[in-house]
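Blinded run. Sample ID left blank on purpose so nobody reads anything into the name before looking at the predicted structure. Input follows.
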Amino acid sequence: MKAVVIYRYGAAEVLQYEEVEQPKIEPMQLLVKVRASSVNPVDWKIRQGMLSLISGSKFPKILGFDVAGDVVAVGSGVTRFKAGDAIYGSTSFPGGGYAEFAAVRENLVALKPANLNYEEAATVPLAALTALQALRDEGNIQAGQTVLINGAAGGVGIFAVQIAKALGAVVTGVSSTKNLDLVKSLLADRVIDYTQQDFTEDTAQYDIIFDAVGKRSLSQTKRVLKPNGIYITTLPSPEVFLEGVLTAFLPGQKAKFILEKPNTQDLVYLKELIEAGKIRVVIDRTYPLQELAAAHSYSETGRAVGKIALVQPVVNIAI
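Blinded prediction complete.
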């Protein structure tokens, strides 16, 4: 099969599109013909070696966490899926989605939302699960609460705005001038243009501040966070980690960071929201898999609006 492989950590040029052996599945895995994948910042952070303590020094590696495609074979222990099912979901760390075929665990995927094509579905799993688990599990979001999403037009932010609204919150989205209309279209109740106003100087206070781009900390946002409010970030910096430890044992404001945990149950929940029209996908650019280096480079600029998708041509399935 064709796949994008790295043999060392480094810049985007280390990504090599080449022929590799097709994966063999274990009893609880599915062999999936990958129709589409997407780029998440964690993918290029692994590629750069920023997470080498976790990803290790064993090469070659195939990166890519998001997949959407067709099941072509199932392991002996699989009970929920069969060959021919269209699925979407996540691969295990450190990836495997940047390939024509991927071996994925049964408990990390769900049936694809019926109203999304493969390209659209592949942009959902990691980003939307991060948003859902941040707000619901870390933030304990409740209907009627006020929520601010920093980075509301980014890959995680677009889903966070919509999920917060679906859960009944009053949402403020922070983005640049050119993306204000997009954030409004996601049904944010209020928008803040960060080029004109620092949200930490706002007059409003929030029950939850979700920093979907990892640019702030509790100490920087506490003035606009309610006395018992929760600050959540996608970037577990040393400062945030320390704040999280300290606030965990004290009354008042809390600092937390989100580490996405892929699972079928949450993917099914997202599927239901998508099919009900409560979540839509926003794709900035789509690249063929063989142009992954360009897709990574674009993601690294931090200017992507919504998600970056990767697609593959339909080929004959051989297993």
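Unblinding after everyone has recorded impressions. Residues 94 and 142 are 34 Å apart (CA to CA).
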